[in-house]
Design a protein that fits this description.
The structure holds 2 protein chains of 2 kinds. Chain A is mostly helical. Chain A folds into 2 domains: 257 residues, no CATH class; 97 residues, no CATH class. Chain A contains 19 helices and 4 strands. Chain B is α/β, with parallel strands linked by helices. Chain B has 2 domains: 152 residues, P-loop containing nucleotide triphosphate hydrolases (Rossmann fold), CATH 3.40.50.300; 66 residues, no CATH class. Helices cover 37% and strands 28% of the residues of chain B. Chain B has 8 helices and 10 strands. The chains are: A mainly alpha, B alpha/beta.
Chain lengths: 402, 227
């Protein structure tokens, strides 16, 4: 057993000593910084020529949101919000550039946004809405049922989600939670980046031994078949995990550094109007990034196994990037229930928060599992299968030609 | 100690690379000669378990070639020796020692000893990418000797070595061959002439000569005559 850890350390060394890995890391760091924090560098242009940087806009909105901190979004606050939005002339197209918006409505823009999230109303519709706490709740349930029908949920699934809804606090307490919101918003890009970098860094772990011809030395040595394989595979998996933690850590650092870390215990309903169990924003973000980490580790297992089966790092990389691109551009219609559900479980799709917190459930032994419970389990099972498939290819490798 | 090669064949489609070779090797140095494509490298790969024979069996003291125990007794220098350019010579040997099952202290001691033996003592901390061709070959010889192998298989070990290094290599192998089985192939007939106790000659996958080489005619002429 001791031997395997020594080999594991050398396998790590082989991975991190490659220049390609460091180039990928440097590029990724810049991309993460641009994704998570880049928007604050934007400039807002207004019709009268006055400009405001996004950072200034954010600071102003943060102050307004802080003023609303701890307030319950009840009838009173809804009325205040709609009254403030009512001051905006009805006929203007870009209401956010009016003086009335700036003077009266903007301090309530976070509440207005919440109303839209909870009900899925378009802006025009929301501006005409008359504040009614009860109606807000009913509209929220109607929205959920519309989504449930479009996803072809069974009655049992609908009942499951309605039971979850009943467990949620209503009305919701308003909290500032911008840092977490930003992390949810950027997660998909960061996840895709982690998947592609993992594929680039690990597609050569096995193949390079064949290219360098070191495979002969490894395979003819005492521990070159069993232990060397597991050391390699484990090093690849932990590298992917470390990469995922590093990317997530950097994202958290930038998001909290710019937007602040306040609001961990804020209600997740402030951010998402969809189906999810009672969660706070911080917990949901951690859950989301943990799912992303598991998806990246699964991709690592897939990449290593496939590269050993194909004996080609370029072929493996092309396949993974091809699937990622396909995932971005191909959208399986929600009414094709099983296909859409399976498609959303593809790692490059599952890293999107709308798939982690998706309404489609998995029935298992009479119980329902939510995607963030079922998919990681599926990845673990498939990952074990891939490991043994890769080991079989590695063990059966014949040194010929050259 | 006995290496049994029993009717071993390797066939690729219609081409027979190794054709029903049977040998019984005991301690000593065996020199394998043959023209390019004669099947020397294929035979050596079969003996190292990195290529599966189409038929026949290979065993060392009853241990089958496919077992971990067999590989534990094996030291191998392939013809196309691969290395990790970003590892230092010492790191490379320590990694190989781990693959061969040596514990940390033993690996460190043996690696330092072997680096000295092959004349790379001062280059141990340098990256392998900075080594010359001869240095890399010597590093390859050092890794093959790690773990005190009872069966040492060297495919073209003297390629890239200068005359002085070849002499040093012969001395090392001569010492090893006293207690163990050493099988080496080379194009340089004089290398074999000097150190091999037994000459094996291959042609078209078959063993065409097998016997000791003592006080016979000029080996080069003998070899050329049969090729």
């Amino acid at each position: 057993m001791k031997q395997i850890w020594t080999l594991y350390r050398y396998e790590w060394k082989k991975i991190v000593k490659r220049r390609l890995v460091w180039i990928c890391m440097a590029i990724s760091a810049v991309m993460i910084a641009a994704t998570v924090g880049g928007t604050v560098l934007d400039i807002l242009y207004e019709d009268d020529g006055e400009t405001e940087t996004m950072y200034q806009a954010f600071q102003k909105d943060k102050a307004y949101q802080k003023a609303l901190e701890g307030k319950i979004i009840n009838q009173e606050l809804l009325e205040e919000t709609m009254a403030a939005y009512g001051t905006i002339p009805k006929d203007v197209e870009r209401y956010s550039q009016t003086e009335e918006y700036e003077a009266y409505a903007r301090p309530y823009s976070a509440i207005f946004q919440y109303i839209r999230i909870a009900t899925d109303m378009v802006t025009k519709e929301a501006r005409q809405w008359e504040a009614d706490e009860r109606e807000l709740y009913d509209m929220h349930l109607e929205m959920l049922m519309r989504e449930a029908d479009s996803c072809r949920l069974s009655q049992d699934e609908k009942d499951f989600w309605l039971a979850q809804e009943e467990r949620k606090t209503w009305p919701v307490e308003f909290r500032y939670k911008e840092g977490y919101w930003r992390l949810l918003d950027c997660g998909y890009t960061i996840g895709l980046l982690a998947i592609v970098v993992t594929a680039i860094c690990l597609s050569g772990v096995f193949v390079e031994e064949h290219v360098r011809r070191t495979d002969q030395l490894i395979l003819s040595s005492r521990h070159g078949r069993q232990k060397a394989f597991w050391a390699k595979f484990l090093a690849g998996l932990t590298f992917a995990l470390a990469l995922s933690i590093l990317f997530s850590g950097l994202s958290f650092l930038i998001a909290f550094g710019i937007y602040g870390a306040e609001g961990f215990t804020a209600d997740f309903q402030l951010v998402s109007g969809g189906f999810f169990p009672p969660l706070n924003v911080g917990g949901a973000v951690l859950l989301y990034y943990a799912c992303m980490g598991i998806a990246v580790v699964f991709v690592a297992a897939f990449v290593m196994a496939l590269s050993e089966l194909l004996r080609s790092s370029i072929g493996t990389l092309s396949f993974v990037v091809g699937v990622v691109i396909l995932g971005i551009f191909v959208n399986v219609p929600a009414h094709l229930r099983i296909l859409a559900q399976a498609w959303s479980y593809l790692p490059s799709n599952f890293i999107a928060n709308w798939n982690v917190f998706n309404a489609r459930l998995v029935g298992l032994f009479g119980k329902f599992l939510m995607p963030w419970q079922a998919v990681p389990m599926l990845y673990v099972i498939l990952g074990i299968g891939l490991a043994f498939l890769g080991r079989r290819a590695f063990m059966r490798y014949q040194v010929t030609g050259r | 100690m006995e290496l049994m090669i029993d009717r071993v064949s390797k066939q690729y489609g219609s081409k027979i690379a190794v054709d029903r070779i049977s040998l019984k090797l005991q301690r000593g140095i065996y020199g394998l000669l043959g023209a390019n494509g004669a099947g020397k490298t294929t035979l050596m790969r079969l003996l190292c378990g990195i290529l599966k024979p189409t038929s026949g069996s290979i065993s060392l003291d009853g241990m089958d070639v496919a077992t971990e125990e067999y590989r534990g007794e094996l030291g191998y220098l392939p013809q196309d020796f691969g290395y990790y350019p970003d590892f230092t010579g010492e790191e490379f040997l320590l990694y190989m020692a781990a693959l061969k099952g040596l514990n940390k202290a033993e690996a460190k001691r043996k690696s330092a000893e072997l680096l000295e033996l092959v004349g790379l003592g001062e280059m141990g901390k340098k990256k392998v990418r900075t080594y010359s061709g001869g240095m890399k070959q010597r590093l390859g010889i050092a890794q093959a000797l790690l773990g005190e192998p009872r069966l040492l298989i060297l495919d073209e070990p003297t390629a890239g070595l200068d005359p002085k290094e070849r002499v040093r290599f012969r001395e090392v192998i001569a010492r090893w061959g006293k207690e163990n089985i050493v099988l080496l192939s080379t194009h340089i007939v004089s290398d074999i002439e000097h150190i091999a106790d037994t000459i094996l000659m291959m042609k078209d996958g078959q063993m065409i000569h097998q016997g000791p080489w003592e006080n016979q005619e000029d080996l080069e002429a003998f070899y050329l005559e049969r090729m």
